Amino acid sequence: MNPLRGILLFLPLAVANWQGCIQQKDLESRNDGKVRRGSNTAVCLTIAKDADDWADPTDYSRYSFAPKADDYSRFVVDGSYELLVRDDQISTNITLFASSQTSISFLRKYYDKDVGVFPYLTAIINVKDGIVSGISWDDACVFCGSSRCVENTFDFSGQEASPKEPTKGCYLTKKECTDIHAKDGNTCDLKLHVVWTGTDANGEYFTSSSKRYSAFSPKQIKDQVKDTIKGWNLNFDWFN
Known about the structure:
Elements: E1 2-6, H1 24-29, E2 43-49, E3 60-65, E4 73-77, H2 80-86, E5 94-100, E6 103-104, E7 108-112, E8 116-117, E9 122-128, E10 131-137, E11 149-151, E12 168-170, H3 174-182, E13 191-198, H4 218-229
Helix pairs in contact: 2-3
């Protein structure tokens, strides 16, 4: 896994001038910008507070990273839980979407004021001959039992979406996240995992989608999550 880290800044985004999620050097060089295995490729994450309906005027931020295509990568926004949720005493939802080239995902919530934090987000970037054809979300209910698994995929009007992909996710309550971070954990910081599927500009097949969490057995996932929260003495059973 290739871990990348970033700092979150909220700035207005001029959607009317949006040219897609691409690297500046591709714009300047006017190359074809196609995805090739092993080459750095721009992936963006756009996030907004109180923006369930993205047609309403709002300030939101977009920040990007450039993982190597077909690496299983993780982008972490250090301190984002404290900044966005705990310290801000937030009473609104925080929604986000992933993008690459001119393709975007459906919305998911990072924070739901009525539920808590959704800490596991994996974007599956679908590519055909080097052109990103779509971005879907991986099944995020593999981390918990049915009592913790709720709908978490929405269209840009804020309505629940029904794509041909997993739509649900596991959550931790705000209190649970605060307890985790008080013990120097970072489980509830905003993070995006990225995998790739399809073919690159040279016709080579991407293979990293086999490393997404939902491809592992329930026991493997359970052991990994338990290792992550071990020693924090939280009063819940994540897998019930």
